[in-house]
Amino acid sequence: MTRSAVLLAPHDTASQIAGSAFVHLDGALFASYTTADFGSAVRLLDGVAIIADGLDHHPEVRLGYGRISFKLSSHDVNGVTKRDLLLAARIQELADNSGARPVRVPPTRYDIAIDCSDADAIRPFWRAGLGYEEAIGIGGIELVDPRGLAPRVWFQHMGIARNARNRIHLDVYVPTEDADARVEAVVLAGGTLLTGEHAPEWWVLADVEGNEICICTAPQ
């Protein structure tokens, strides 16, 4: 692995993206900007395209009226590297010079977790019902949206079957710097913090009827 391909965690990139529009979550850098109109957004994209071609490293882009968003990741290592930091710095410089304004829209990833005794027995049911495909994840075989849009589904083994609580919960991944505020917001909205023993990796909270949500941070 070359030096430029060393995988970087959020704590490795925090100081370098501080003050920019970019946020590090789930193996990628994200940034959104507003522009005066659609043409301004296109011109910013044109400038980024020239820079990206010169660096031979290209972002994913979403373009709309007066708005443009970027996602940077190094696919050879499935995460953020110095290549992404360099491209992020160049994009931020170009955005500043063009009058584009950063928009604070923290990226979020949503997963659905299903507690089960036998994942192999129930996975085909969920795969067929959702129209998903199987993929290998950290915890084993998961189900993913082939369009890359909807939440992934993963299966959490239960040693003893649970009948007194919901077996399906949501995992919500947010940038590490936003996690405490998100947990506080959930509590203020009527939630109960069931455990924070695994923080800052994840917190478990429940609504007034016991339905659970995990607020999580990603290691990459």
What structural keywords apply?
2 domains; single chain; 5 helices; 2,3-Dihydroxybiphenyl 1,2-Dioxygenase, domain 1; alpha+beta; Gyrase A, domain 2; five-stranded antiparallel beta sheet; 220 residues
What is the name of the CATH topology of the largest domain?
2,3-Dihydroxybiphenyl 1,2-Dioxygenase, domain 1
CATH class of the largest domain: Alpha Beta
Order of helices and strands: HEEHEEHEEHEEEEHEEE
What distance lies between the first and last C-alpha atoms, to the nearest angstrom?
Answer: 17 Å
Unreliable runs: none
Give me the count of strands.
13
Question: What is the average of the pLDDT values?
Answer: 91
CATH architecture title of the largest domain = Roll
Describe this structure in words.
The protein has 220 residues and is an alpha+beta fold. The chain has two domains: 3-102, Transcriptional coactivator/pterin dehydratase (Gyrase A, domain 2, 2-Layer Sandwich), CATH 3.30.1360.20; 109-216, 2,3-Dihydroxybiphenyl 1,2-Dioxygenase, domain 1, CATH 3.10.180. The protein is built from five helices and 13 strands. It has helices at 10-17, 38-55, 82-98, 119-130, 176-188, and strands at residues 23-25, 28-34, 60-64, 67-72, 101-102, 109-116, 133-137, 140-144, 152-157, 168-173, 192-195, 202-206, 212-216. It has a six-stranded mixed sheet, with helices on one face. Helix 2 runs antiparallel to helix 3 (82-98). It is globular, with a radius of gyration of 20 Å.
